[in-house]
UniProtKB/TrEMBL annotation:
A GO MF term: metal ion binding
InterPro entries (UniProt xref): Calcineurin-like_PHP (IPR004843), CNP_phosphodiesterase-III (IPR050884), Metallo-depent_PP-like (IPR029052)
Record keywords: Hydrolase, Iron, Metal-binding
Assigned protein family: Belongs to the cyclic nucleotide phosphodiesterase class-III family.
Domain Calcineurin-like phosphoesterase: 12-223
Protein name as catalogued: 3',5'-cyclic-nucleotide phosphodiesterase
Organism in which the protein naturally occurs: Thalassotalea euphylliae
Length: 283
């Protein structure tokens, strides 16, 4: 990777997650007005002109009603009409209903997209239970595509011999990679680990071989953590996102709402592969 680009942020992506909406706009979730919480988050994201893209990382619905999906759609398409909104399913969501309802601007149903020197992947971790599972086929395909892309780009670079500016462009095509998913791929020490990713070992065996992967962001845990890479076990950091609904207490036995404040996470992705991130809680 060449370093001719400066270190200024290329773009900002906002992650929001776990809205847990109901068909009834007035319904409360553990005492939280989840519809109004989501509206506040969307309003703040809309007012931030630095945000290029928004990614929703699952658990749109709490009551599993189709009406709750339409609540989400109406709110997001009104408030985030100037953004591009990608999404994936959480354990509460029905993938078919998500794809049937979240259509048209600003929604984009793609599960991979390019931005600057980066490629972003939205992994499906939904299983038949509340816990998560990412299929080995999905992981193998991702890593294989990345390796093939890198090899092809390397060949393309070698084929250019008489245009120095084009050489630089070709060299920069080797992209940094970043994944979004719903379930957390590391244990965090409280009750939500019972519903975490069930195939940790296989997951990290694949991810650790993906040298251009720079980070993984997930929802599901209703708290913000930044877990650094751990040599020999995990080669990339893991970032978790606060929920727009409620904040879980770190109780080992049961779900307790520690706070009703909604939150979200911002990422700045730099051209040189650097990531800066911050968590925002609304008062």
């Amino acid at each position: 990777m060449t370093n001719h680009l400066d270190s200024a942020p290329c773009f900002t992506i906002a992650q929001f997650s776990d809205s847990h909406l109901f068909a009834d706009k007035q319904a409360m979730h553990h005492g939280a007005d989840v519809y109004q919480n989501l509206a506040k988050v969307c309003q703040q994201l809309a007012s931030n002109k630095a945000i290029d893209i928004v990614v929703f990382t699952g658990d749109l619905t709490q009551d599993h009603s189709v009406e709750s999906y339409h609540r989400f759609k109406a709110l997001v398409e009104t408030l985030l009409c100037d953004k591009t909104v990608y999404f994936l399913a959480g354990n509460h969501d029905d993938i078919d209903v998500l794809n049937d309802v979240l259509t048209g601007k600003p929604f984009n149903q793609a599960k991979s997209f390019l931005q600057g020197n980066w490629r972003f992947h939205l992994l499906n971790s939904k299983s038949a239970t509340p816990a998560g599972y990412v299929s080995i086929e999905q992981l193998s395909e991702l890593v294989s595509d990345a390796l093939n892309s890198s090899a092809n780009n390397s060949n393309a670079e070698n084929s250019v011999s008489d245009d120095s500016s084009l050489k630089i462009v070709k060299a920069d095509i080797e992209l940094f990679q970043f994944c979004f998913m719903h379930h957390h791929p590391v244990d965090l020490g409280y009750f939500i680990d019972r519903h975490g990713l069930t195939n940790h070992s296989e997951f990290w065996q694949c991810m650790n071989n993906w040298r251009s992967l720079k980070g993984i962001a997930c929802g599901h845990v209703h708290r913000a953590f930044e877990i650094p890479a751990q040599s020999g076990q995990r080669n990339v950091p893991v970032y978790t996102c606060p929920a727009t609904s409620i904040k879980f207490a770190r109780d080992t036995e049961q779900l307790i709402a520690e706070s009703l404040q909604p939150g979200y996470r911002l990422f700045d992705f730099f051209a040189n592969g650097e990531i800066k991130t911050q968590v925002v809680y609304l008062t």
